[in-house]
Structure formats: structure tokens, C-alpha cells
Amino acid sequence: MARREDKAHQWIKSERLGRVTLYLSERSSKWQMYWTEDENGCLKDVATKKRRRQFFKSTGETDLSLARLVAAEKNKELLKREHFPELQQPRRGPTLLEPLIDDFESYLKDLGRGYDHRKNMSGRLTCLADWMAPKGLRLVGDVTPDLLREFTEHLRGKRKLAASTVNHYVDAVHNFFGYVIFKRRLLSGLNPAACGRQAQLERLPNPSLPAPTIQPAQVNAIIAKAKEQGDRQIVELVVFICEGGFRFQELQFLQVGDIDLEQRCITVDVKRPDLNKVRPELQRRCMTAEGLWVPKTRASRRPVHITDRLASVIKLMHLV
User: Mean pLDDT, to the nearest integer, of 282-302?
Assistant: First the structure.
């Protein structure tokens, strides 16, 4: 256990991850973290007047990206301990929708989401609950794909909302039921707001088509075919994308400066790219009005570990 730091100026750097704080002090070259619990090891509310005790622990990592991973795992443990004590024994019986919306907003706050984001999500979900109330539907289990289809028709018809705005409402319901099903485990089955090809295939009585996911065997087949044709550029590009697990937007806005071979890490972070070098369709789809590209990951930052295979491809592509 690390020594307790009583003064903030003793910290060289600090970063907050949910209920865990990472800090670098003058006493140690390794990143350390702390969180707050009571004497019994339970998280306590800020409003309580009881005595609190702070726990300090070294992550054992000098690299910030690795320390973030350690702190993120600890934060998951603390969130589960506070919000989901019933995970081992799922709650049985009907559950009202409106109280869960408040719990979901509190969960988003603990994840570090902004005030505007939380209020937007809560407002869209409350709109769904208010629309369901006159129909006598107040339970979480009453929400079905057919009911959501009627809800979207109501938004487009009576409320005259644009299709893009209706998509925001559906996304809010999708995220909410991800919390209900996977975090709280109050329901079993599929997310009623899931959309896309795979969601439709799972709802078929006899699904026959495979999942839209590329398999390692398919990747190796593409690489083997490209090698037969002597196209090394395709081989290197496919290995770079699949080995790093990059998403579409991340690959489009990846920069050479994000690659750090010494730390064996590629940092996907917020960027302000040159608009003259960004295609107009990408500006509309992937960038904010302020000219920023923000990755859709936790804390708008994602470290990608560089494996030996990925490092060799990076050198062959002369990226560094």
C-alpha cells in the first residue's frame, strides 16, 4: 500500500476515472490510485456525516495507459459493489420503468458522462414512459420491438421529429436496456431496441445466415490470396487493421504521432484534424461542429497495445 498524500500540491499529475483517482507523486515513479470507502470496506454517500477512510494502492505500472486499465478494473468493481449488489441473485418479478430511469441517470453520472448527456438520455426515456402510461404500460418488460416501432411512428407523426432525432431516442432506449439487461440483469433475452442486420437475424424463428463478423480464418484467407498476387501493401494493411482492432472512425483519423513503439501503445484520442485533408462526408458523419473528432470510447480515449506482429507491420509500412 502506498503512503497517504495529504496535500494536493504533492501530486505531479492526476486523473479521475469514475470513483478511482490516478495520481503521480514525487515519492514514486509509478502511478498510484485511491478510492474512498468506510471502515467496513463499503462505498459511502458524500452526504453522510460519518467518518470516511481513503484507501491508496499502487498500480505497479509506470505507463499511464496501463495504469488506466488497472484503475478501470477497480472502478468496475466499485460500481458493481455500489449499484449492483443483486447481480449474484437476479431480482424476480415485475419492475417499474420510471425508477430505473433515475438509476440509469445516476449510473451515467458515475461513468463521468456530462450533465447535458445525462439530461438528454433521461428526457428521451421519460418521453417513452409518459407515452406508455395512458396505455396502462408501466413495466420494463412491456417494452417490445413492436411497441418501439409504434413509438417511433408517434414521434415522426404527431411530434413531427426528424428521422435523425428519432434515431437519438432509439439510441437512448438501446443504451438503457443494455444497462437493464447486462448490468442489472432484470430482464433476459435480446435488447428490444437493437437494430441492424444481426438483430433482425436473431429475431428470426430459424436464423440461417451467419453473424456479420469476420473470422480469423477469413482474415488469413485474404492475406494468403494477397500474398499469391504479390500485393504486400494489402497484406500489411489487413494485418494492421485486424491486429489492432481499429474501428472505422479510428482508422480514418489515425495519425502517425499516435504510434509510440517505445511504450508499445497506439493512443486513440480526441483530435482537431486539418479540414482540408478530411473528406466532406467524413466531416458530416464523424466530426463535431467545433471541428473535433471524438472517439466513441470511454473517456474519449482508447489505448491499443502494439503486439510483435503489429510492430513488425508498422516498421514495414515505414510509419515511424
Answer: 79
